[in-house]
Amino acid sequence: MSPTTERYLRKFLWFLTVLISFLLLFEKYLALPAWVQVIGRLHPVVLHFPIVLLIGSITIEFSRESFTPPIHLKRFLWLITALSSALAVLMGLFLSQEEGYLGSTVFWHKWTGVGVFYASVFIFYLYKYLTQLRFKNLILIALGVLLLLSGHLGAELTHGEGFITQPLQKSSTTGTDITFEEALVFDHMIRPILETKCANCHNERKSKGDLVLIDSLHMLKGGKSGLLFEPFDPTQSLLIDRIHLPIDDKKHMPPKGKPQLTPLEIRILHAWIQSGAPFRARVSDFTAQDSLSVLGQELFSSASRSSQPMYSFKPAPEETIRQLTNEYRSIQPLAFHSPALSVELYGPQAYSSQSIEALKPLKTQIVELNLSRMPVQDQDLQLVTDFVNLNKLNLNFTGITGEGLSTLAALKNLQSLLLAGTTIDGTALRQLLAATPSLRHVSLWDTKVDYDQISDLRKQYPQVALIGDFIPNDTTRLKLNFPIAKSKDWVFDQESAVELSHSVRDTQLHYTLDGSEPDSLSPRADGPIRLERTTEIKVRAYKEGWFPSDVAVFPVYQNTYKPDSVFLFSRLNHVHLAEGAHTFFDKQLGKLGANNPAWANHFAGVRHNDLQLMCWFDQPIDLNTVGLRIMIEEETGIYPPGSIEVWGGKSEDQLGLIAKQVTPRLPEPGEKASLTLIEVPVRNQRALHCLKIVAKPFQRPGERPKLLLIDEMFLN
Amino acid sequence: MEKEIIEHGFSLNRRRFLSNLSIGLGSVALGSLLMPDLFKSSGKVSGELPLGLPHFAPKAKRVIYLFQNGAPSQQELFDYKPRLRQLRGEEIPPSVVGNQRLTGMTANQDAFPLVGSFVDFAQYGQSGAWISELLPYTARIVDELCIVKSMYTEAINHDPALTFLQTGAQQGNRPSMGAWLSYGLGNLNENLPCFTVLLSRGIGNGQGVYSRLWTNGFLDSVHQGVQFSSGEDPVLYLKDPEGMDRRDRRLMLDHIAKLNTMSYEEFGDPEIASKIHQYEMAYRMQTAIPDVLDVSKESDAMVKLYGPDCLIPGTYAANCLLARKLVENGVRFVQLYHQGWDQHSNLPYEIKQQAKDVDQASAGLVMDLKQRGLLDETLVIWGGEFGRTSYTQGRLTADNYGRDHHPRCFTIWMAGGGIKPGMVYGETDELGYNITQNPVHVHDFHATVLHLLGLDHEKLTYKHQGRRYRLTDVAGKVVTDLLS
Q1: pLDDT range class, residue B74, cuts 50, 70, 90
Q2: Given CB atoms, is A331 within the 8 Å cutoff of chain B?
Q3: How far apart, in whole angstroms, are the C-alpha atoms of residue A431 and residue A189?
Q4: CB B458 within 8 A of CB B446
Q5: CB A548 within 8 A of CB A521
Q6: Do A36 and B27 touch (CB under 8 A)?
Q7: Nearest residue to A243 (alpha-carbon basis) of A260, A226, A222
């Protein structure tokens, strides 16, 4: 090899190194033309050279001084090694751009291979110094290991995992581990038969009748008696002929005395030849009705549901899908790249049979159809049967009946059928199940099919999930919740009307007005209740099949006299200012929970001083009672007033004490919070123009005074 | 000497250098021939997939997320820890706490006594899941549920934790889950919003929720969550005003749309396009919503299933019923918030009421979906933003105690939509404090939910301010054990 050639080879190596580095860096953007892909496919061929050369080069490095070739020769060998590995890596890179090369095995194989390449380049360029390195041997051995790893991963990619030890493994290719979706027709259905029943006499070492039955090449070649089979025509196929001959016939295969083919195996071979004897096809490539597929279904378990179903039809033109989509009909592919379509209809008022009929152009691609709540009638189902690949059909709450159901038997791929809320009955369902073996899931809640019929059908069709009521014939009783009361005037001066109602339909509401507990004998609420005085309405709701509700209490308050002006002499507690003096006659009632939120809860409060409210009336009033609505919450120290005084007169200078009351009852510790009305009787005071109401907060000696909260006052 | 030799070896003469330079450049040029799009600005980077479609055929098409705001206490609901009862009152071993960041509320406590649940647990269903007596209805349907006991997060307070769980980051400027789904999958029914939110509140100590939790972040505002009102009218002003004809409204909208389109053509602001879209959706909602949200015709069987509260607008049960109706009509993501689970104190009293609020309705919702055959396509999720501590907060009395926030483990359950039913996933230690098996981070949870809807969480991205954002940020692995 002349130095010039070597120089050119070196430059070529540099060229390849830069090229490979660049391609690796920007791999994402690679878009290879077809002829480059062809080069890529030479990778499995070319890679053998660097393997051998590397092993050779590494081995030579370990040779003894006296035996070792001259250094320039060794260096040249490394050059060739690096070059060949560059080519192998380059082709491998091209090959990896093809589809299907994505997993972690490829990832590791690629990068260990690239590592081997860079290592060999490195070693070549620094060869002179390699010999001086202390850990030269370590590097070489590491390189060897890397090579082994890369090679092993590469082989795994081509032959699959566990290839080498496979004969030692339990034979698993007859379906226990292979899923339906993964299964290859020849490898997983045909080959196992050949291996167990034929290969003993028809293999490469021993080929009776010059026939070898181990792989496609040999099977296509045939043997002494001619070609083995005629694709698509089992009747003209020698293979089928021989296995069907009477067992005593000399030519019957397998020969008498050896293990014979099972009927299933015969059917498999027959179906295989009928389908054209494909060697590379997958079982799932065939439609579900094809015999190969059916046989495959028997042999292989279906994969876990998260694998992608394979569809054999072509996608619909996008333009058609776009035209047929509108705001009441949504058409979507099941996934990016999937030809299968899912259609949903909305807007019952916009529905007509045309909505389904318009979908005819997509009849092969529609796999899911949702018609729930649409007023679909039985005759519309005829249109649905056009969608031959329909898998899921939702007819919840549509107008179909049992008669329409039978038309669905025409759908050979129908697996899931939702019929909740329709009027179908047991007979129709039975007929449908009998006629549609593809069904796996039927939803029957709120139909005329009763629980016993469902149980029966479940036993008869164990592979179909029949979903009925969650709790069939549920007889549990629940308690009704509280009744609701609505009124325009909870605080009124002459009269008020209260309407009682309940959120659940058809309940009976029984009420009392005298403070007693209502029961089913109390009067029924049948329209607004008219009230003319302060009253507490107590209501309880009843309904057949339910426990009666708890008693709800709705107080109404009468306030005959509204003052024309009011004035507060005292200061209110800074948290409970409410609307100031106007709080007490504004008809706004507060709720429990003084701090929730305080400023909007309509409660005015005092703690460290009395509440003194002055009221003036332009027209004289005849007063009988003064009412105060207060909050009592023992836990947080909100108590009724210690005492209440009422002063009245013709003017503010002429006030006299007209009523006084000390607090009637203190709350017990732990008592629940409540809103209470305190009424102070006034001994028939006539013609009052001016009123002063004084309420003192309650205070135990030595303690902080309790909070007094009032949200409304009533003068009657 | 060695060094000099090596240096000499590395030195390059001019001829060599120029020769190698030109060869290298030629090599790069040759390589770039194989990359036609190398210098295109909008390079279609592999990893980006077109929007509006699932990346692979999904199980679930819709999600109902029953969010229990405030953080329900797992020791009282799903995580059975009898050891805590035995160790009642004892100090929690520091080795268990490790260097956990405690909240300001308990960091200054001088004692951390352990306290067990005040309610009893029993096993239910084929999975033998332990459920407390506070959730009898949930216990009944436990064979449909997948209970994950080993969720964990980093956030220790409500706002960051809520934001984290809803948007994938503790800083609140990102799109929420529903917005990502709307962006990635699009709307099924153009008459209804794609993402709706319903709120309810229990009597327990509540924390607020706010629109940041259902925001569209930096995505177009069409992907925002639409919050329905909790009152009698979930959507206000649905009816045209008195005297206005529907056709008038149509004409009005058409004219406005024309003006807006002119504006859009001039300024190109995507918000204008969103606005046009929203006006159209509002117009369609005027007819669609009353039909969808009308509960007056629901049968008694329905009312029994969800509990009678389901007819009272604004309650959790009513929201569950509405959620089912929305989902039946093609809404993709319905999120419920039930506030009031933040039991720092007064736990036994408050949690009983909170549990009562949600138990029947949540179970009822799952069974309603199953009865209608929709459970396979609808993913139902129930859970809070973090868990609660095994030690008490505040004083431990004979019948009262509270629990503080605890991010290290909490429990959620999921049902339907491709989740493996009848399963309990993950384990915590006997003190219910740390996870011992199968931790599931919030990012993993998000990745799994997206996977169930047919989206690869690493491929659903949006470029904003120079970076491609995604719901799972830079983490998250699909928990394949949970998939059926």
Answers
A1: very high
A2: no
A3: 35
A4: no
A5: no
A6: no
A7: A260
Q: What is the pLDDT of residues A674-705, one digit of tens each?
A: 888 999 998 877 888 999 999 999 998 999 99
Selected residues 423-442 of chain A with any CB under 8 Å from a CB in chain B: 441
Name the minimum distance, in Å, from the CA of A51 to any CA of chain B.
25
Residue A595 banded pLDDT, cuts 50, 70, 90: low
Q: What is the pLDDT of residue A297?
A: 66
DSSP bridge pairs for A340: none
Interface subset of A 237-276, CB within 8 angstroms of B? none
Q: What is the pLDDT of residue B47?
A: 45
Using one digit for the tens of pLDDT, what is the confidence trace for A405-436? 888 888 888 889 999 888 888 888 888 888 88
Q: Which of B169, B177, B53, B178 is nearest to B455 (CA)?
A: B53
What is the arithmetic mean of pLDDT over A132-139?
81
Give the per-residue pLDDT at A172: 45
- Cβ–Cβ below 8 Å for A470 and B284: no
CA nearest neighbour of A125 among A77, A81, A79: A79
Query: Which runs of E-coded beta strand occur in B246-353?
Result: 333-339
Of A23, A446, A504, the CB nearest to B308: A504
Please tell me whether residue A394 adopts helix, strand or coil conformation: strand
Q: Which residue has the tokens 């019952």?
A: A348
Of A28, A309, A446, the CB nearest to B57: A309
Assess whether pLDDT exceeds 90 at residue A182. no
Q: Partners of B410 in the beta sheet?
A: B151
Average pLDDT over all residues of chain B: 89
Cis amide bond preceding A254, omega within 30? yes
Q: Chain A residue closest to B39 (CA)? A: A29
Contact A393, A414 (CB under 8 A): yes
Q: For B155-174, what is each residue's pLDDT tens digit? A: 999 999 999 999 999 988 89
Among A18, A310, A442, the residue to mutate for chain B (most B Cβ within 10 A): A18
Give residues 410 to 469 of B whose Cβ lies within 8 Å of A: 418, 454
> Is the preceding omega at residue A44 within 30 degrees of 0, hence cis?
no
What is residue B238's predicted lDDT score, i.e. its pLDDT?
84
Please report the pLDDT score of residue A259 as a whole number: 76
How far, in Å, CA of A690 to CA of A696, rounded? 20
Mean pLDDT of the A183-206 span = 78
Average pLDDT over residues A57-83: 89
Across the interface, do A330 and B330 touch by the CB < 8 Å criterion?
Answer: yes
Cβ contact B373–A416 (<8 Å) = yes
Phi, psi values for residue A535, rounded to 5°:
-140, 155
SS3 letters across A263-298? HHHHHHHHHHHHCCCCCCCEHHHCCCCCHHHHHHHH
Cβ distance A22 to B373 less than 8 Å, yes or no, reads no
CA distance A437 to A272: 24
Q: Which residues of chain B neighbour A469 with C-beta distances below 8 Å?
A: 371
CA distance B475 to B455: 15
pLDDT > 70? residue A162: no
Complex ipTM, two decimals?
A: 0.75
* Cβ contact A620:A690 at 8 Å: no
CB burial of residue A85 (10 Å; 0-12, 13-18, 19+) = buried
Among the listed residues B318, B357, B330, B382, the one whose alpha carbon sits nearest the alpha carbon of residue B141: B382
| Residue A327 with chain B: CB contacts under 8 Å | 190-191, 284
Mutate to test the interface with A, among B37, B299, B372 (most CBs of A within 10 A): B372
